[in-house]
Fold:
Amino acid sequence: MNDAWQSFLQEHGARIESGLVADFGDAGSERHAARGQSIVADLSHLAILEFSGEDAASFLHGQLTCDVNAIAPGSAAFGGYCTPKGRLLASFLLVRHARGYLMLHSRTITAALHKRLGMFVLRSKVAIREVSGEWVLLGLSGPEAPKQLVALHGQGRGLQADGSVAVEIPSRRIVLILPLAVAQNTWNRLRSSLRPVGTGCWQWLDIREGIPLVTAATQDQLVPQMANLELIGAVSFAKGCYPGQEVVARSQYLGKGVKRRLYFASLADSARPAAGDELFSDDLGAQASGLVVNAQAAPEGGYDLLVATPTASKENSVVRWKSPDGPALRFGALPYPVE
Structure:
């Protein structure tokens, strides 16, 4: 988080922990507000890589799971970046900006992701920069969010006159990418109608929507289908080759290798779960069978999670957290069907 932006948020009541907004003074009430009220959240859990140059689109199209060529200016797509074996090194929201592409991804993987993608630039006319300090990311949700976006700019999503970009993601949530110079004024205007909440509230909404975020703890653990990326439009099966494409295609069309899928689950009255924690299933004994992908405190208490676990265990057994005799997970529904 940019130092000036952090100081500004603290002046407006933000409590900062490890570079993220923990809350604005009432974490429990803010979590309840996230369920259906109109909110605004700082998204500093995400970092930004910028891709510019005349070959930026073709370079990214040959590296990522999503159809980069189909992203119109001012719009975005979810995507993944894989190893040659089809394992995810990153999941992200890729935004087409006036000067190139902005990749919004977990800040825990920025250095490694930047280095690896840079290895494949070769003679391509593309520049990759880490530009998190030049932008502010805000998340808007709730019934007033679209109205406030129009009030800000006189229009809805897309490229804005002040250099910002507003993109819509599931459940009509809005990700607002702001130049640092306009961020403070924008925040002041938004908070008159949208309640400021901690970053974890937005992450909880992602969990409820079944949108996974690959972090350092879960890199190289999942093929895209194990993270349901094809179910949220993050994988194109019509495009050409990219690293891991053959593995991803075989998993899709031949049903090979997709024994685990991403599910929503809850834990009551446990210690705080974390991404990368192992899961165990009664039907598989002492052998770890899955992992926690993302976890956040839930409005009703306990924790809500996205977990990658065998479908058979989820349907026919008991799945437990961290040990074969650990707390049992309670599974719930995602907003899309998982087959």
